Amino acid sequence: MKNTINPVLNLIKDNVSDETEQRKAVEEVVTKTMLICTMLFNAAKNHYEKINPRIKSKFLQDYVNKGFIIKDTLYMLGDEVYALFGESYSKLAVDAWKLGVTVHVQLFGNFKDKDAHANKILMYYEKISKYDPSFERPKLKKGLFGHY
């Protein structure tokens, strides 16, 4: 799915000349992609949470890998919408980034390189807060006592 975002959005940009129709098409791509990402993440999370606790740790990496792909897809979706269609489509980009941050934060405790992931989450937080100042800064624990 991630590999189709740029080509699909470029097809819309290059072939849908009516601005209203173009916006509708981009909105549909963003909405459907976010819906699919939400469904896939929820399925992965629910599956992982239902695994017998005695063997659950063997399946953690699979859950994290699936979530990682989903959050990257959402970040890319927002980035591509913003890059191709500009400021007037920022709400759509922000919606995708917000969902990406939500997924990323849920996975955060499972990453070894917390600094890199915290930086990425906070980078998207900054992008989002430029358009939605009410968006709450994610609470990320650095360790037992520290926060990012």
Task: Describe the protein in words.
Helix content is 70%, strand content 0%. The chain is mainly alpha-helical. α2 (19-49) runs antiparallel to α3 (60-85), α2 packs parallel to α4 and α3 (60-85) runs antiparallel to α4 (90-107). The mean pLDDT is 94. The protein has five helices and no strands.
- Helix count? 5
Number of domains: 1
Name the average pLDDT.
94
Helix content estimate: over 70%
Sheet of most strands:
none
Form type? globular
Radius of gyration: 17 Å
- Assembly level: single chain
Regions with little confidence, pLDDT below 50 for 5+ residues: none
Distance between the termini: 31 Å
> How much beta, percentage-wise?
under 5%
Overall number of strands: 0
The helix/strand order is HHHHH
Instruction: Decide which structural class fits the backbone.
Output: mainly alpha
Any descriptors?
5 helices; 70% helix; 148 residues; 0% strand; mainly alpha
Topology of this protein?
Layout: H1 5-15, H2 19-49, H3 60-85, H4 90-107, H5 114-131
Helix pairs in contact: 1-2, 1-3, 2-3, 2-4, 3-4, 4-5
